[in-house]
């Protein structure tokens, strides 16, 4: 596999994407096929909105399946062994020095990013600023509201369970 095209995923992220792929394949094979079949039975397809909607959804699901298959085929599951330096998959406790707020985040690839689960993309401004850093370092980044400084309080390869 060409190293340039490798997508690094956490084990959890890989499993979530695989589960989504399996679910979409099931939906595409059964539910959408059934909807298309029922819509065809209604007669004239040129003015059949149910048929058009089902075909459009089939296309969207097919595109997502292709995207997921490409991601999973080009992925490599990362194993964090060095918890002294922030890398993809690291759990990090950061303190916003402007507000004093502490939070725990996990750095992941864009395919896994989910702000509501505190999974921050390594391609985000915060992710880029944290990559390769160590405990005790202070990183500074520009945000729309101005400059923000974060102190790195902890790094782990396992969940820190701090919210």
Question: Would you write up a description of this structure?
Answer:
- Residues 7-77 form the Transcription elongation factor GreA/GreB N-terminal domain.
- Residues 83-156 form the Transcription elongation factor GreA/GreB C-terminal domain.
- This is Transcription elongation factor GreA.
- Keywords: Coiled coil, DNA-binding, Elongation factor, Protein biosynthesis, Transcription, Transcription regulation.
- GO terms for molecular function: DNA binding; RNA polymerase binding; translation elongation factor activity.
- By secondary structure, this protein is α/β, with parallel strands linked by helices.
- It folds into two domains: 3-77, Transcription elongation factor, GreA/GreB, N-terminal domain (Helix Hairpins); 91-156, Roll (Chitinase A, domain 3).
- 38% of the residues lie in helices and 24% in strands.
- It is built from three helices and seven strands; from the N terminus they run E-H-H-E-E-E-E-H-E-E.
- Strands 5-4-3-7-6 form a five-stranded mixed sheet. Strands 1-2 form a two-stranded parallel ribbon.
- A hairpin with a 2-residue loop joins strand 6 and strand 7.
- Helix 1 (11-41) packs antiparallel against helix 2 (49-73).
- The longest helix has 31 residues, at 11-41.
- It starts with 6 loop residues before the first strand and ends in a 7-residue tail after the last strand.
- The model has no long low-confidence stretch (mean pLDDT 84).
